[in-house]
Amino acid sequence: MDISILGRVKLGRVKRLPVAIAIATSISLISCSQPNVSGSENAAAPGAASSTAASPAQTTASLRYYAKDGIAIGGADSVAYFSDSAYVPGSSEFTHDWNGVTWQFSSAKNRDSFAATPEAYAPQYGGFCAWAVSQGYTAEIDPTAWKIVDGKLYLNYDANIQKKWSKDIPGNITKANQNWPGVLNKG
Questions:
Q1: Residue 132 is assigned to a structural domain of this protein
Q2: In total, how many domains does the chain have?
Q3: Where on the phi/psi map is residue 12: left (φ > 0), alpha (ψ -120 to 50), or beta?
Q4: Which residues of the chain have a pLDDT value below 50?
């Protein structure tokens, strides 16, 4: 297994975990006012308009995506979170290279949807754990720990961390938006 280490993460009692990350050029950030929260059902349409525009500094910063062995977000099909309201593993048969990493999908249809509008389906905070970013650092994710809020995909380290994040989603998104992308410069 060939893993290039470009960064390190910290999470509570977990000692430094290696994470392979790639450089990305854009990300879509969201408004935090009264989010529409979805988990396993009723996912909002991707790319739904938010009531507050992201600042120019947020939209033009060079960003990185969470990837291991060059595969984004643990190989999960990011379109399926929206279309199937579920985590669905992607396949090496259906891939798309975007922003320096390879994204996997469960079907050609999902791959093509992502290729047409990747910003609508890519997770927030480069696919790093949303809770960790709200706390000022980055951490890897478990693609089964996810939530859609206001048409944006958020991933977490695991189910226990997701429970913490879910206690104050609007507040945690506000903190994460303030920390992102600056947490990428912490080492």
A1: yes
A2: 1
A3: left
A4: 1-62
80 near 106, Cβ under 8 Å?
yes
Looking at residue 100, what is its pLDDT? 92
CB 49, CB 84: distance < 8 Å: no
At a CB cut-off of 8 Å and minimum separation 6, what does 35 contact?
Answer: 149, 150, 169, 170, 173
3-state secondary structure of 158: coil
H or E element, residue 132: helix 130-135
Is residue 139 a contact partner of residue 10, using CB atoms and an 8 Å limit? Answer: yes
Q: What phi and psi, each to the nearest 5 degrees, are found at residue 119?
A: -60, -25
What are 54's two structure tokens?
A: 């992201």
User: What range defines the domain where residue 180 resides?
Assistant: 7-26+61-185
Residue 40 covered by a domain: no
